[in-house]
Amino acid sequence: MAQSIVVPQLLQMPTEVGYGLGQTILQAGLWMAPGGLMMLAFTPISSRLLTTLGGRATLALGAFVISAGYVFAVFFDGEPWQLMVATCIASAGVGIGYAAMPTLILENSPASEAGAGVGVNSLMRSMGTTVAGAVMAIVLTSRTIPMGSVAIPAETTFRTCFIIGAGAALAGALVVLFIRRNHPRAEVVETSEHAESLT
Q1: Are 58 and 97 in contact (CB under 8 A)?
Q2: Which CATH number goes with the domain that contains 81?
Q3: pLDDT at res. 100
């Protein structure tokens, strides 16, 4: 969500400010478009990773890739193609991790509460989108410079947004790695053996 708010503004910022890239709305959209294609391309890769690594490792990997995309943008944001590359990296991470979240929830939820778990995931995703938009808006307006009759975000606020995005993705990856591994087959075997011993 951070890149959807921050990158288009930086692309369309007037070149007169010294750090703006002076792109039109159409041009900004075209620079962002490869990110969507990257997300689409990584969907089948995510499926294979889920099969081989499981939801936990796949989601963590996706979050690390998203963080790498934001870190790239912190250091390389002076040309439109650089922001396109950063967006593609972050979008690849989203493509990897997007399907892993519900898989991870289902792996760690009782069958009777699977629907509730997926529902809470959808709710939290909506809340995250809202919070991300608000946080990025607060950061972008925290330090402005005058340009004619309007105030525009200072250059440092864009980099701060990228750092926050990288930090949030990294924190998410670390949280996922601390989730206890669930072994449903072992639990089933143990339950069956216990039932046989009672009979």
Answers
A1: yes
A2: 1.20.1250.20
A3: 83
For position 79, what pLDDT does the model report?
92
Q: What contacts 24+ positions apart, CB below 8 Å, involve 43-48? A: 43/95, 43/98, 43/99, 45/95, 45/96, 46/95, 46/96, 46/97, 46/98, 46/99, 46/100, 47/99
- Say whether pTM exceeds 0.90: no
Q: What's the average model confidence in pLDDT over 119-140? A: 86
Nearest alpha-carbon partner for 73 in 2, 172, 151, 168: 2
pLDDT in tens, 13-55: 888 888 888 899 999 999 999 998 998 888 888 888 888 888 8
CA dihedral angle for residue 36, residue 30, residue 24, residue 11, rounded to 10 degrees: 50
DSSP letter at 23?
Answer: -
**The total number of structural domains that make up the chain:** 1
Domain coverage including residue 164: 2-198
